[in-house]
Amino acid sequence: MKPKSKILILGVTAVGKGTLAFELAKRLDAEIISVDSMKVYRRMDIGTAKPSAERRKQVPYHLLDVVEPSESFSVDRFLELTSQAAQKIQSAGKTVIACGGTAMYIKAMLYGLFEGPACDPAIRKRLKAEIQTLGLVELHKRLAAVDPQAGGRIHPNDEKRIVRAMEVYELTGKPISDLQRQWSAPMSDNWFVIGLRRLKETESKRINLRVRRMVEQGLLEEVKSLLAEPAPLSQQARVAIGYAEMIEHLEGKLSLDDVVEKIKINTRKLAKAQRTWFKTFGNVNWLDIAAEATDEAILGETISLLSNAE
To answer: How much is the pLDDT for 1?
Structure first.
C-alpha cells in the first residue's frame, strides 16, 4: 500500500479513534496530531483520555500538553500548531495522521475558518465602551445568555472573541456557534478522511465503560490536584466534561455516584452533538464497526480502505 500523506480519523467520543490511529501509525511509520480541544492542556490526562506514556514512547504525538490549564486555547492557535506539526512530519518523509473528535477544529482544518459577516466599527465601538463601563465579565454573561456554547468555549477574559461573537449575533440575529456549523467552503483535498461509526447502543456502552475506568484511574484526584494549583483553571478547562462534574462534587453539590452518572449523560450528549456535526462533512470514508470487532480487524479494514483508494 502506498500510504496517504495526510490521513484524518474522526468519530464520536470513545468510538476507538485513538487505538486505530496508534496502530495505523505503527504500521505506516507515521506521527499523530491530536485534534482535541482538551488534550492540549497539561496535567489534564485522565479526564481527556490522553494516550498512555507507553504509546507516546512508541509513536510521536503532537498537540498534546501545549498549554497550561489556566490558559485559553483558540481554533486559530490550533490551526497554526497543526500546520507547523504537519510540515515537520512531512519534511521528515513521514505520514501525518490527525485524530480526534473536536468537530469545530476538524471543520476548520478541512474547510478553513468561518469568516462570518464583515466587522461593523460602530457596533464594536459601542461594545468596547460597554466593557469600559460595565466590565468584560458582564458582556461575557450576555454572550452566554444568547449563545451558551460560545459562552462556555470563550474565556471570560478573551475580549477579542467575546466582542466578535456579540458583533456577529447583533449583525445576524443568530449565535456564532450556529453559524459556524453552517459554513460551506469546499473541503480541502489534502486530507483522506476516515470516519468510525458504531451503533448508538454500542457507543453508549463504551462511553459508560470509559467513564467508570476514568474514575477508577483517579479522575477525582486529578481534579483535586488541578484545583490546588496557584493559577485557577481557565473557563475552557473548567467546563470540560468530567472536570466540571467533579468540581461540583468537590463543592458539595453532588455525590460521587451522581457525578459519575452525570458524566455519562453529558458524554452521551457530546456524542450526539458530534454526530450532528459530522453529518455536515463531505467526503468522509465511513467504516461501520461491529460491536465484536477486534482492534486488529478494524486496522485491517482501514488498510483495505486506504489501498482501494489508490
So the answer is: 46
